[in-house]
Amino acid sequence: MNRQAIAFLTMFSLVLMLAVYYITMPIQQGDETPVVSTPNTFEQMKIELNNKQQSLLESYTATMASSTSTSQEKAIAMEQISKLNQVMNDEKIYTDMLHTLGYEHCYLEIEQDVMKIHVQSDSFDTSDASKIIKTVLSQSNYQYIPEVSFSK
């Protein structure tokens, strides 16, 4: 290939990557104030997560009930239902565990093998994060990788 073709392909791929990046970015408005986490925000996040999980369950259940679904599709749907139920159960268990540790206002979400933990606290330091991480790791037998964030 000549230099012009290589330069063109390089620039084209760069422009394409930037276009995809800007399309997938969330829209931000200039007059927006910074997001402050409140217990109501966490409750809203919990409701949204629950709605998302329930719609996934309904989708998998519809696949199971469909007469047009193949046995392989039904098996996959059954497996996904089982995984989703396990994740929902784990989220409940670990949220309760965080409450017993004294973090009343928290939000927990499990995505694949990552557990995202958001805690609202007036005072926090690295020892709090370390305590949460150690507890989650020991309770889950290193099944999940905890990501802890704090907000006021």
Provide an overview of this structure.
This protein is an alpha+beta fold and 152 residues long. The chain has one domain (38-151): Orthogonal Bundle (Helix Hairpins). 61% of the residues lie in helices and 13% in strands. It has a 3-stranded mixed beta sheet with strand order 1-2-3. Strand 1 (106-111) and strand 2 form a beta hairpin. Helix 2 packs antiparallel against helix 3 (71-100). The protein is extended. It starts with a helix and ends with a strand. Mean pLDDT is 83; it is low at 30-36.
How would you sum up this structure in a few lines?
The protein has helices spanning 3-24, 39-65, 71-100, 126-139; strands at 106-111, 114-120, 145-151.
Please write out the topology.
Elements: H1 3-24, H2 39-65, H3 71-100, E1 106-111, E2 114-120, H4 126-139, E3 145-151
Parallel strand pairs: 2-3
Antiparallel strand pairs: 1-2
What structural keywords apply?
Helix Hairpins; 152 residues; alpha+beta; three-stranded mixed beta sheet; extended; 3 strands; single chain; 61% helix
